TrEMBL record:
PANTHER family: PROTEIN THEM6, PTHR12475. The lineage of its organism: Bacteria, Bacillati, Actinomycetota, Actinomycetes, Micrococcales. This is Acyl-CoA thioesterase FadM. It comes from Agromyces terreus. Pfam families: 4HBT_2.
Length: 185
């Protein structure tokens, strides 16, 4: 996966048009033999890894990557979920559509879709993922969303859908282990 990431960050993304935070970033891929599982379709874990590469493409094209490097910040995934509709097979070409959905007081939310053309040429969604991301400082600590907005501006997409806010709250882990509910108790 490091090869795909470097290929996009260092070469391919820099040759594509710049994007605003409200644009949908489209990143093209092909299913490789190393992406397959024993069922000969793309492994479910690989979907998340390729979504990472597509997010880096979006970061480069929106200019966020440059600012992050200047300020010694880096992005991390706090939570993610994916739903599968169809399997991707060996050598199939697909596009990941990435967009910023919005933010709350702690995180930025993104939607990413695996898309291929259907028989009639219309886009068909093969999988859809949602990501809750945060930015950290290399010196330690979390970059507050207010500081992100100051550095990058706020997307004009408006507020988050209520179900996304609920999901973000439901999947967030408490600050300490003692506060965490457990099914193992």
């Amino acid at each position: 996966m490091i090869f795909r990431t470097l290929l996009h960050v260092l070469f391919l993304s820099r040759r594509k048009p710049d994007l605003s935070h409200d644009d949908v970033a489209r990143t093209n891929f092909i299913t490789l033999p190393t992406d397959l599982d024993v069922n000969r379709h793309m492994n479910n874990g690989v979907y998340f890894s390729i979504m990472d590469v597509a997010r880096f493409d979006m970061l480069v094209r929106t200019g966020v990557w440059r600012t992050m490097r200047e300020r010694a910040w880096y992005p991390v995934v706090a939570s993610e979920t994916i739903t599968f509709r169809k399997s991707l097979q060996l050598w199939q070409r697909f596009t990941i559509e990435s967009r910023i959905m919005g933010y709350d007081d702690k995180a930025v939310y993104l939607e990413q879709r695996y898309v291929r053309p259907a028989a009639d040429g219309t886009p068909e969604i093969y999988a859809q993922g949602f990501i809750r991301a945060r930015f950290l400082r290399k010196t330690g600590g979390v970059v507050p969303v207010s500081e992100l907005i100051e550095a990058f501006g706020a997307p004009s997409s408006g507020g988050l859908p209520e179900w996304v806010e609920r999901w973000g709250a439901d999947v967030a882990l408490p600050a300490t282990r003692a506060e965490a509910p457990s099914i193992w108790a």
